[in-house]
Amino acid sequence: MPRLLLAWAAFAVIMLLLPQVVSPGTLRIIIFANFLAIFAMSWDFISGKTGYISFGHPFLIGIGAYTSAILSYRFGVPVSLSIPLAVLATMIGGTLFFLPALRIKGTYFALVTLAFMELMYQLVQVIRPDLTGGTRGISGIKTILSGAVPNFYLSFGLMFAIALALWLLSRTRIGTALDAISMNEEAVSGSGLNTTRLKLFAFMVSALVAGLGGAFYAHYLGSIAPRALFDINFVFTIIVSALIGGSSTVIGPIIGAYFMTFLLEYLRPVLPGSERYLVYGLIALVLYVYQPKGIMELLRKLGVRAGGGRTGRAGNV
Amino acid sequence: MLQVLIQGFLLSGLYALIAVGFTLIFSVGRVLNLAYGAYLMIGGYAYFYMVQTLGMPKLPGFLFAIGMGALAGVLMYRILVKRLKGDQVAVEISTLILAVVIQAGIVLVFNDSSKILHPIVDGVWRIGSTTITNNILVAMVASWFILGGLLLFVKKTHVGRAMQAVSMDAKGARISGINTDRVNMMTWAISGALGAVAGVFFASYTQLNPSMWVAPLIIAVAVVIVGGIGSIVGTLIVAHIIGFMEIITTTFIAAELRGVFTMLLIIGVLVIRPQGLFGRGDL
Amino acid sequence: MSSLLVLDNVVKRFGGIVATNGLSFHVDRGESLALIGPNGAGKTTIFSLIMGEHRQNSGTIKLNGEEISNLPTHKRIQKGVARTYQVPRPFSEMDVAGNIRVGMMPDNLWQMITRGADPDGELAIARSVGFRDADLSRKPSELSMGDLRKLELARTLATRPEVMLLDEVFAGLTVGEIEQISHLLAEKRKQGLTYIIVSHDLRALEPLVDRAVAMTFGKAIAEGSFSDVMDDEAVRSAYLGQ
Ligand SMILES: Nc1ncnc2c1ncn2[C@@H]1O[C@H](COP(=O)(O)OP(=O)(O)OP(=O)(O)O)[C@@H](O)[C@H]1O
Ligand SMILES: [Mg+2]
Predict the structure, then answer these.
(1) Is residue A223 part of a domain?
(2) For labelling, which of A111, B76, C80, C203 has a CA lying 20 to 30 Å from the CA of A87?
(3) How many CB atoms neighbour CB C7 within 10 A?
(4) Ligand 1: centre distance to CA C71 (Å)
(5) CB-based burial label for B256 (10 Å; 0-12, 13-18, 19+)
(6) What is the pTM of this model?
(7) Which residues partner with B149 through β-bridges?
(8) Is residue A18 part of a domain?
């Protein structure tokens, strides 16, 4: 544990020194990666841990983003209030998201969440467009900070705090219990644990993180639009980040988000348009099919080989 | 009123056509192929390339599209699905990724602007004050024929019965000497071909663009979920429920809300009756 | 003295199949009961009904005099029943200690977060079913069938049951492993644990139980001391007839 905490501290220090050495352009990429990491961690806390795959995570992120955007842009609510309210709204939305999980799992659950996202996409455009901005969304949302460096610190601080909290949480017995649900849910109830309550807890944590991420993201971008938000490509990016990095770990989704974001950036000179997704998707697909546990597992295997078969348990790093 | 009735039937026919290939894979292989929408896209673009880019006649263009769809189905099965050995969630995630890859591939070849597909059959029909294009009329008729043909194929032919056996009990089928691998591959090929046919009609009804795979996928998902696993008749009924509801919503409420009902239906049925309205029927 | 667990006239249908057909039996505190019957007799179904994994169509199940039929599974565990599975399905990615840890957890989110695991307790339970200390960090995939059965027992014991339902604890084991598990159960029995045990290995069963209930087609056909039940005409023909 102390050694792992040291690793976290080292990670923080390196990242905090980063603006000294890299260009603002790169920082903006990292800012995006930080937000993606938050979304991927949120996804992973439901799907990676408990095994309830969400194909509709933008539903939650969108509630966070829209609530805070509408409150601050339309009603002039200060950001310090609109963000907590957005998180609250997302958690209420998360409860809605949770209801199907009481009865169905696996494939069917994944599809319901997809339906939730599509429903949200259509409703946002139709219901009260005077508030949501309809198809065009909202622009001119108040930003919290301006400039690449401050925003980098903000996004990193947020991401880091969430990561640390989730990491600590997943090391408690509740983390173990949630992992157990993905392996054999019946045996968890058979151990005397209320799986419904455990799952609800996981959903609430996931919604909280998604709401925070979504709200801050809206205030960073300054604009939101339904097509970009409730998009299956967005789902794809989130899921792929979590899976590629290593599901059911906390570091995994962060590594995945950074890896995928930079991959996309480095492909830009070669393939300027959205064709980049071809290479990106192929890499994701091959990695997923051949190493479903992701980069974390690859690194661990390399580490084991290099370290002469050190058997230190990776645990939920 | 007549208008609603006619349009409802036409749209529902198209939806049944879209959904049937998806149902087939779900009932035989017990996996959801989220790249199913990509077959429609492949079919649509293949037809477009042959007929409108190369200027070939329509029939070879159509056959080419079918061939490409079947090929895509076989490749997907061989390269991806077989390797994942029935892990449903893994198949879903990897086919979703694949769909995005195919989308990007289409952008690379055809760029990402929308394309208009000329009607496969020209001309219009007039019933009272309603006009309907022959194109969608043919789509509906074709859909009925294809569904009927599929039903006969499944019930009467050797391969069809093998598919039925695998769908009911894969292990049992294997023990009794059916080559389940071959049956699965056939099913994927047929599903791909059906998807491509649906894609040509769907594209001529709407238009071709690289994200056109999402809407039909959702329709197919809705039909399968609401209809219950793998019932061809259920597919037909639910396609009509969804098709009519969309037309009714568009006509009497608001065009923007047309998809809302479908989503609510998916959510409601899955939560209240996860086995689908028509239960787990045989093929 | 009232019985610890009482089933009365329990009926369970799966579609057209009647898995248990008006079954009644009881087990007293500190008693050990064998439940025997040919394949498909409904033994496993009985366990699932007691655990609440399935609900009976009619009849009552009482634990300590309290009707438990309307409780969800985890509540029934908290009231003191627990079962092992015919086919062990442990938490596959967790080591032996982790599997036991889940069994030991209190059903209280706050305590799960704020209080750490209890490695000594885990070790004690692991040892009590015959694991060595080094086994604690082994994964289920590295365990033999005998060890998997022990893990089932350990995970179940970790919930501190008053009555344990043991389904086919000897299936797929070597002679040495059967002896080991028998020994362990004899030990638990001496300590006063109540259990119902299902097994096709009648020879291994005999010394472990006070009483037996034989069933076929979801109905009890004989009840009494183990040897009486084995000598029963109906039981003999049920076994020969399978
Ligand atoms: N979930 C289920 N759905 C449908 N039928 C079931 C189900 N579970 C059990 N059955 C049927 O109920 C009957 C009793 O099965 P059960 O598993 O209880 O028997 P058993 O006595 O444990 O047999 P075995 O000795 O083979 O373990 C069988 O006919 C079985 O096919
Ligand atoms: Mg049994």
Answers:
(1) yes
(2) A111
(3) 22
(4) 22
(5) middle
(6) 0.89
(7) none
(8) no
Residue C218 Cα to ligand 1 midpoint, Å, equals 10
Q: What residue segments make up the domains of chain B, in order of their start?
A: 2-120+135-272
CB A298 within 8 A of CB A249: no
Residue C235 sits at the vertex; the CA angle it makes with C164 and C14, to the nearest 5 degrees, is 60
Torsion of CA B78, B84, B85, B88, to 10 degrees: -120
Instruction: Classify domain C1-80+161-242 at the CATH class level.
Output: alpha beta
Query: Residue A169's closest chain C neighbor by CA?
Result: C113
Closest ligand (CA of C43): 1
Question: Residues B151, B9, A116, CA angle at the centre, nearest 5°?
Answer: 85
Number of structural domains found in chain A: 1
Phi, psi angles (nearest 5°) of residue C239: -70, -40
Residue type, A130: D
Cβ atoms of residues B269 and B226 within 8 Å:
yes
Of A174, A183, A191, the CB nearest to C109: A174
Is the beta carbon of C23 within 6 A of some atom in ligand 1? no
Domain parsing of chain C, residue ranges = 1-80+161-242, 92-160
Q: Exposed, middle or buried, B118 (CB in 10 Å: 0-12/13-18/19+)? A: exposed
Cβ atoms within 10 Å of B1's Cβ, excluding its own: 6
Say which CATH topology domain B2-120+135-272 has: ABC transporter involved in vitamin B12 uptake, BtuC (1.10.3470)
pLDDT by 10s per residue, chain A, length 317: 678 888 888 888 988 888 888 888 889 999 999 999 999 999 999 998 888 899 999 999 999 999 999 999 999 999 999 999 999 999 999 998 888 877 777 777 888 888 899 889 988 988 888 888 888 999 999 999 888 899 999 999 999 999 999 999 999 999 999 999 989 999 999 999 999 999 999 999 999 999 999 999 999 999 999 988 998 889 989 998 998 888 878 888 999 999 888 888 888 887 777 777 888 888 888 888 887 777 777 777 776 655 443 333 333 33
Helix/strand/coil (H/E/C) assignment for every residue in A254-312: HHHHHHHHHHHHHHCCCCCCCCHHHHHHHHHHHHHHHCCCHHHHHHHHHHHHHCCCCCC
Q: Tell me how far apart the alpha carbons of residues A43 and A70 are, in angstroms, rounded to a whole number.
A: 24
CB B254, CB B11: distance < 8 Å: no
Q: Which of A1, A173, A184 to mutate to test the interface with C (most CBs of C within 10 A)?
A: A173
